[in-house]
Amino acid sequence: MSGPRPVVLSGPSGAGKSTLLKRLMKEYEGVFGFSVSHTTRNPRPGEEDGKGLNCLPMLLGATLLPVADVLSSETSEDYHFVTREKMQEGIDNGEFIENAEFSGNMYGTSKSSIEDVQAQNLICILDVDIQGVKNIKKTDLNPIYISIQPPSIEILEKRLRDRQTETEDSLQKRLEAARIDMELSEEPGVFDMVIINDDLEEAYEKLRSVLIEEIEKVQDAKK
Ligand SMILES: Nc1nc2c(ncn2[C@@H]2O[C@H](COP(=O)(O)OP(=O)(O)O)[C@@H](O)[C@H]2O)c(=O)[nH]1
Ligand SMILES: Nc1ncnc2c1ncn2[C@@H]1O[C@H](COP(=O)(O)OP(=O)(O)O)[C@@H](O)[C@H]1O
């Protein structure tokens, strides 16, 4: 695959990946493109469904959105929300570069979600769990691997509770996965950089500094 080097952001649910990412994409508009994953989990209030035309039948089947809504252009897309059947069909057809089961739901990165971003010569950002990291390492994507970690499991739990997006069951599953993730992130050679998201400003500066070389390459190419 061509274009600038992609970036994989990983780390426990609630560590602050989306918060950091949104800020980065806002500050560097036209530099990054988000790889919109597929998932079988339910959308949260305010989450936008990926509205790529190639996923239209999937989308209509899964969520019964009016066609006019589906076709209206949106500024940000969180996921392609799909049924288990549709997701499995895509996996069986070889449409995914990686997929994983997380907290009772399926998640996966389709090849086209990466290609769509790379075709625009943008830095493709992937937000995947630790299984995704391991599976992407088996491909030829060659991204920069960054882990975002919370200062402690207690703080992570507080942030997840305060976010008010999870049921007690899904919160517990996320904390269980977080313990494994926190351990693995310490293994040498897995990540190019591990950022502890304690103070948001400091964490953001670290993320920006590790990416600035790639950012400037994309900006220079546009001149
Ligand atoms: N392997 C894999 N993991 C994903 C993908 N998309 C999201 N995830 C991970 O799934 C986990 C749950 O994501 P989500 O339901 O959005 O919850 P949140 O991270 O707490 O906001 C996170 O660790 C994400 O990094 C994907 O395409 N592949
Ligand atoms: N440095 C920080 N200090 C305090 N709260 C934070 C910090 N970073 C993120 N948060 C909050 O923690 C919650 C989880 O962050 P989020 O970006 O949704 O995590 P993730 O995408 O990794 O699941 C959100 O409510 C967010 O506002």
In short:
This protein has 223 residues and is of the alpha/beta class. The protein has helices at 17-27, 56-63, 67-71, 84-92, 111-118, 130-136, 153-163, 168-184, 200-222, and strands at 7-10, 32-34, 37-39, 79-81, 96-102, 105-110, 123-127, 144-149, 193-196. It has a five-stranded parallel sheet, with helices on both faces. A four-stranded mixed sheet has the order 4-3-6-5.
- Give a quick account of the main beta sheet: strands, pairing sense, barrel closure: 5 strands, parallel
Biggest β-sheet: strands ordered side by side in the sheet: 2-7-1-8-9
The oligomeric status of these chains comes to single chain
Under CATH, the topology is which?
Answer: Rossmann fold
Q: List segments where confidence is low: pLDDT < 50 over at least 5 consecutive residues.
A: 52-75
Radius of gyration: 17 Å
Per CATH, the class reads: Alpha Beta
Tell me the series of helices and strands, N- to C-terminal. EHEEHHEHEEHEHEHHEH
Beta-strand percentage range: 15-25%
Principal-axes geometry comes out as globular
InterPro entries: GK/Ca_channel_bsu, Guanylate_kin-like_dom, P-loop_NTPase
Protein name: Guanylate kinase
Pfam family, one: Guanylate_kin
Enzyme class: transferase
